[in-house]
Design brief:
single chain, alpha/beta, two-stranded antiparallel sheet, 17 helices
Amino acid sequence: MKSSTWPGSSKTFTLKAIEGDQRYGDPVLVRIDETLLRPFALCRALASRFELSIHGTFDTVFSRVVKRLTGTQRMIMFDEVERVAYRTLELIRDLHDLTGCPVLLCGKPTVYAKLGFRSVGDFSEVTDQLAARIVVRRDLTERTRGDNPEPLFTLKDIRNLVRGSQLKLHVTPDAEKWLQSRASTLGMGGIGKALVCFYLASKLAFVKGDATITAEHLEDVDHLSMGHEDAEEVAKLATHPGSSTPKQRCRLHQLKRRHGWTADQLHHAIGSPSTTSLSAAEASECIKRLGGGKLPHPPGKKPAPFAKKPRRTDATRMIAPDHVEQIDRMLREHFGDMEAGHAWLKKDFDAETPRDLLTARRAGQVIHVLKEMIER
C-alpha cells in the first residue's frame, strides 16, 4: 500500500498510534532520516529493530532480516519514504517479495516520481516492478479537494482530542472551530501545531484565572509557536540593539586586527561605542562594508597542509566469522556432506576447516571457486 499527503496532515501521528498494535498484526514503524537513505543503512536499521546482529556484509545482514520476518506477516511501515534513494526502494521491494510481509509506504506526493521512473543518465526508465506491487494507493488530503471539499479534521475529531487531554477547563465552540481550521490547513503545521497552540492556550487561561479557553486565548499564543509569521518576528528581533551574535563580534575583531586598527578606530568604523551594542542586522552590514570575507591566517600561524598517511600495503586482513559461515553454507550446498567438503578443502587449499584459511584473501579465493562450482 502507498499513502501520500502533505506535511502536517498527521500521517506520522497515525502511524505511531498503530505501531505495535496487536489488532493490526504488531506493525513495525521505520522513520526515514538522513542516516537511512542508502540500502545498507536501512538494512542495518531493520536488523537492529529485530535485535539481530548488524555486523557483516550486506548479504549477510539482509539474510538475517529475511529469515526473521519470513512467515510472520508483520506489516512494515516506512515514513517519509520520499527521501530514500531508488536502490533503497528496490531493497524494500525485495524484502516484501522474500518475506511476504505487507509494506506501507508513507510520504509526500513527490515519491510517485521515484516509484514510476528512475533517472538513467539523461533518460528516465519506467520501473514497473515497483509500481506493479502497489495494491492500494491513497491520498489522505483528497477529500479536501473537488466539488464538495471536506475538512481534513472534523469537529468531532477535535472534540475527541480535547476530551482526551482531560483538562478541567471548558473549551468554547469558537475555540474548537479555530483548532479545526488550524489543523486542517495544509502547510500550517497540521494537528501537531494545533495541539501546541491548545496546550499554550490552556496555560495562558490558567495564569489569567479563566475557566474557559476561547479563540482569543489561541490567537494570543499563536505567535509563540512555529509558523509562517515567524519570519517577521525574527526580522524584528534582528534589529534590536545588542542582538549581535558572538560570531559576528568575533569577525569584527578579526577585521580590526587585519586592518591594524585600535579599538577606537574600530568603534569609529562601525559607528558604535561597542560591538555588543550593535543589532544583528547592523553587525552583518558592518562586516559586509568592511570586507569581512574569508580572512587570512595570522602571520606565522598558517597551519601546515594536511598530509595523508600512506596506506599500508603490507597489512593483512584476517578471515572473519562471516567468511567461515558463508564457506560452510556453500560446502554444504555443493557437496551435501561436510566431510566431503572438508576433504576437498584439504586437497585444493591445504586447510582442514575454513578457519584454517586464516586470511580474508584466501577465503575470497575459496568462495570464488565454490560459486563457479555451484553455478555449473
